[in-house]
Amino acid sequence: MRPIHFISGLPRSGSTLLSALLRQNPRFHAGMSGPVAGLVKGLLEGMAANNEYSVFISDAQRQRILRGVFEQYYGDEFSAQVIFDTNRSWCAQMPLLQTLYPGSRVIACVRDVPWIVDSIERLVQRNKLSPSSIFNYQASHTVYSRADGVAGPGGMLGAAYNSLKEAFYGEHARQLMLVQYESLVSDPRRVLDAVYAFIGEPAFAHDFENVQFDADEFDQKAGTPGLHAIRRTVKAEPRRTVLPPDVFRRFEQDAFWRNRDVLNPHGVQIV
Predict the structure, then answer these.
(1) Where are the beta strands (DSSP E) in 19-153?
(2) pLDDT tens per residue across span 70-116
(3) C-alpha angle with apex 246: 166 to 132, nearest 5 degrees?
(4) What DSSP character marks residue 27?
(5) Which residue range is the domain that position 185 belongs to?
(6) Of 16, 209, 252, 1, which is closest to residue 118 (Cα–Cα)?
(7) Burial label, 90 (beta-carbon count in 10 A; 0-12, 13-18, 19+)
(8) How many domains does the chain have?
């Protein structure tokens, strides 16, 4: 199997931009969140003890079956020499990933949390005639209930945030790198150099003035046009928040990776 690495982390934090940049390298394949994580989850559950035939499946067989998902999904249709699979759930699967692919690395995209909530809310308000899959296509929410929903344990943000902390403090944290959205858009060359060093690949000259990625069809189906849209030029663009002040303040202290008082026991690299 070709080298495989994983892009994970928080929503609205630059994973699509990072993938769009990485795929400029002809040796790499990277894209938006795909189906592999869901397939792996389904197989793990299908081979669990509640299946009466699980007694016939050894751990070695489970490992081969799960590796087969990656190997068959990224088959001949993908000619790249290095694969990046993207899904926010990978941070919660660090032990599994290191069992299947001991040499793999997980790159987790992060962002100041109030601006994640702001970005989601901005999308919803921009697409007011098209209810989003983020909120089960319901159109009756307020900004407060939407913030509660995405930040809850099962929400788009809350689940990813808990997974990120699990990975950051877990025993496989040395296979984890955090890429801050703020760094990626303000100094993409430095961030990409760090990513290449982290995964042990030779540097590549990326074009930060001509970034391309098209997921319009997927975004339309999700009822959230622009969900994976990126600008052609990588640059930081300050803006005012659309959140009420109390909602914004609610999340201001949640970027634990920025808090110098928070321990980083495994020395996770933060770019």
Answers:
(1) 28-29, 82-86, 106-110
(2) 999 998 888 899 999 999 999 999 999 999 999 999 999 999 999 99
(3) 65
(4) T
(5) 4-270
(6) 252
(7) buried
(8) 1
